[in-house]
User: Which sequence fits this backbone?
């Protein structure tokens, strides 16, 4: 009856290599190269491909960096503008509240007393004058003139400054005045003694 153990007596499915007759293990060949994983042609291509992929990724990052910076700047600008809108809406609400207050006669009277120093008929108004001759607690005088034309006369606009520089460029430069030279003394002529004889 034939044996099921196979050619060398090992069982099928066992991971042990068949033993040789003589009881010795086969000798491995040794070479001068150190033992380790052998590099194949495919591993070098993978490294080259990885370098190309990294190079392309780096180029994409550099090209998109400017766009990202612009996006961040615009995002910050949008945030600042939204905050400004909220502040202005709050200011509009305050001004609307003040407008509704001006509809009240008591508020108008109080503002006339405070700002203009008016009194009701039959009342006596007093004003305290400080050491500098100005009323104490008086509202500050307006900083600029009420007339816009007077303001324009005081502060020239940019286009008048520009036109003035154009006109000044067309004029020849005036020479610098030289200091006056000391006058040279004139010789005094004296009559010779021979001419008088």
Assistant:
């Amino acid at each position: 009856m034939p044996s099921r153990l196979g050619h060398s007596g090992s069982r099928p499915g066992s991971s042990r290599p068949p033993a040789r007759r003589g009881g010795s293990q086969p000798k491995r060949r040794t070479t001068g190269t150190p033992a380790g994983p052998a590099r194949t042609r495919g591993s070098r291509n993978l490294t080259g491909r990885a370098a190309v992929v990294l190079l392309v990724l780096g180029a994409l990052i550099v090209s998109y960096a400017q766009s990202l910076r612009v996006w961040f700047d615009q995002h910050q600008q949008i945030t600042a503008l939204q905050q400004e809108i909220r502040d202005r809406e709050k200011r509009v609400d305050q001004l609307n509240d003040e407008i509704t207050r001006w509809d009240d006669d008591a508020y108008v009277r109080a503002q006339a007393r405070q700002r203009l120093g008016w009194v009701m008929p039959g009342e006596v108004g007093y004003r305290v004058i400080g050491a500098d001759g100005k009323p104490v607690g008086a509202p500050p005088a307006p900083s600029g003139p009420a007339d816009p034309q007077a303001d324009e006369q005081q502060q020239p606009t940019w286009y008048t400054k520009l036109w003035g520089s154009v006109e000044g460029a067309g004029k020849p430069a005036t020479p610098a005045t030289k200091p006056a030279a000391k006058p040279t003394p004139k010789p005094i002529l004296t009559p010779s003694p021979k001419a008088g004889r």
